[in-house]
Structure formats: C-alpha cells, structure tokens
Amino acid sequence: MTSFPPRADPEWVSWGIQSLFVQGAMRGLFTLLFGASMLLMLRRAEDGHVAPIDAWARRSIALMGFGVLQFAVLIWPGEILWNYGVSGLFLLAFRTARPRTLLLGAALLIGGLSLNAAHWTGQEVQQLREGGAAARAVALGQAITPDQRAALAAERANLAAVHPSEQVVEREISRRTHVGSLLRWSAGYWTEQNLTFTGWIDVAESVAFMLVGMALFRAGILTGEAPAATYRVMVLVGYGGGLAWRGFVVWLNVRSNLDMGAPGIDPLAWTLSQAMFEPARLLVTLGHVGLVLMLFRSGALGAAPTLQALGRMALTVYCLQSAIGSFLFYAVGLVGQLSLPQLWLVAVGIWIVTALFCRWWFGRYAMGPAEQVLRWIAYGERPRGRPVTRAVSAS
C-alpha cells in the first residue's frame, strides 16, 4: 500500500475486497481440490501395470521438480508446487480414511497452526511495544538496555516494512530487474519459504486443507451429490463466519495503518487475528465451494467449457501464468510500478490470455503439455499428444 492513512480510494477498497474474499481463499480452494484429486487418481488406476500409490508418489515427486523449475527458471519463488508435492506424500497415510477421520486430522492441524500463530504473534507484538517504548526513551535521552535495543531494532524494521522509504523501494526494484540479483533473490526467498521451519508450517497448512477436500469428496459434496441444503449451509456459515472475522481483521489493520506495533490497540486483538486466520480462511473457502456448486446445480453456469479447460490444464496454466508474470514484471520492468487496482487489471488480463490458450489447446489435444509430462513421470510411459476426438465447445 502506498497511500496512508487508509481512505475510501480505489487502492484501499481493492485491498479490502482482496482481504475479505480472495486472500488465501483461492489457494484454499485449489488445495481442497488437490486433496480430492488423489482419491480420484487412486480410484481410477488408469494403467493396470502401475500401482496407483506408486503413480501418486512419483507424481508428487514430479511436482516438487516443477517447483524447483518455478523458482529457478520462471523466477516465481512464491510457487506452491514443491509444497503440494511434499504434502501429497503425506496424504498417502490417509488414503483409506473415513470423512470423520479426515476432518479430525484437519481440525488437529488447524488447531496446532492457530496456537503456533498466537504464540509467535503475541511475542512479536510484545517486542514491538517494547521497541516503541525504547524509541520514546531514546528521544528523551535516556539509556536503554541491550534487550531494549533489540526491541527498538525490531520496531524500526517493522515500520520500514510497512512504510518503506523511496530509497528502499528503488533498491528492491533494481534488485528484481537485473538478472544476477534477481536469481539470487528468487533462490533465497524460495529456500527460506520451503526448506526452513516456515516450509513445514506451510506443508501442515496444505495437508489440513487437502484432508478437508478428501472428506468433502468422500461425502459426495464436491461431486454435487449432497442435498441442496448442504450447499446453502456452506454458503451461510462459510461467508457468515469467515467474512465477519475477516472484516474485524480489516478494521484492525485500517485502524493501525497496517502497523502491528501501533499504540491504542489491545495486543490480544492482534494475537486473535492471527490465531483465527486459518479457520476464517477455511470458512471463506467453503463458502466459495458452496456457492460455485449451487450455481452448477442450478444450471446457471451451463457446461462451463472454459472452466473445464482451465481445470484440465491447471499445471500448464500455473506455469504459463508464472512465465507471463516474470516477463511483465522483471523483463518489462513493471515491478513496483503499479497500484493494487492496476495489478488486478493485469491479473484479469493474464486470466483471459490463459483461458483462450486452454480453449485453443483443447481444440487440438486431449491433454495439456505439463500434464503430459506429469503423466509420463507418474506412469512411466510417454503419453501420445493425440488430438481430441471432440473439441471443447467454443460457446
């Protein structure tokens, strides 16, 4: 965000909408479906000479390889494929579990994640408060202790992250528009996010949502077989609970100018906001699932051929969007140049381009290029890039 204090301008309004409906929820939706996909793959056993579990394990390891490709070649260190590959291997332990067991496992993981978030947030807020007190002591010419100096450094780092100076912004832009520093940044960021304690926290988060997806699939909810009332409850409870809590968090961030160390706000509010992040994200995700399935069941979306094409080429689309994003932001130099509403317009443009590509591709072939590679690795046979017998409708 570049405009402070918060106001009802396009940037802050788009940030609010994103925080309520999008942040983490789209990833949550994709993660639910990934969990369901394992059950589909194991059930299908497409190749008689390959054990489904072996195929899934190889597929998961291949996804980890695609994750390395994402940060090393496509320069997207925030990728999720490595995480999904690791998480997919853990899912094998739950492949025969009942929905109740799956939901219990998810609840335990989400509960643990919430406690972890509460612990670290409480410590961070306390340190930032101590840093603010130390800053006031220094301004009065008072001596401070080593612990206060550490807290002061943390408080200044927090302010610099929330309100970076022009010099810091220019340095980061330069870092991400020159090949050498860009590659070092991508590798460093990816390593920190995937090969440290943070990476295992993210794996636990993904496994929890995948278990929910498996439970919803086994219960017939994701396949549209549940009673209509089930989807209405998902929408009402999901949006009602999730958006109410997220609305509180938006209010908290607006009141504090996005500064967790700002005075005048009870530290417990920050602790609760982070502790409830995963439950609220899950609720909003379930609200999205319920709404989409209600629309499908009512026929409002028709056959949704474009959504079908995007779903069947999810990995190819993911890689293509990473490549387009890297070209626009690093090669063309748009990084740091666009406001949040402008970034949304870029995102919509990328969605349109990839959707058109998928429709074009499925008019000629039965499987996306990345999906062909994944199937080759999983089943040990190179799939033929055969044309489709019936193209996806262009209507």
Automatic annotation (TrEMBL):
Taken from the record, one Pfam family name reads: DUF418
- For this entry, the protein name equals DUF418 domain-containing protein
Sorted alphabetically, which keywords does the UniProt record give? Membrane, Transmembrane, Transmembrane helix
- The residue ranges of the DUF418 domain are 216-380
Q: Which PANTHER family match?
A: INNER MEMBRANE PROTEIN (PTHR30590:SF2)
Q: Which residues cross the membrane?
A: 20-43, 81-97, 102-120, 197-217, 229-252, 282-303, 315-336, 342-362
Q: Which InterPro entries match?
A: Bact_Transport_Assoc (IPR052529), DUF418 (IPR007349)
Q: Which domain of life is it from?
A: Bacteria
Q: Does the keyword Transmembrane apply?
A: yes
For the keyword Transmembrane helix, the answer is yes
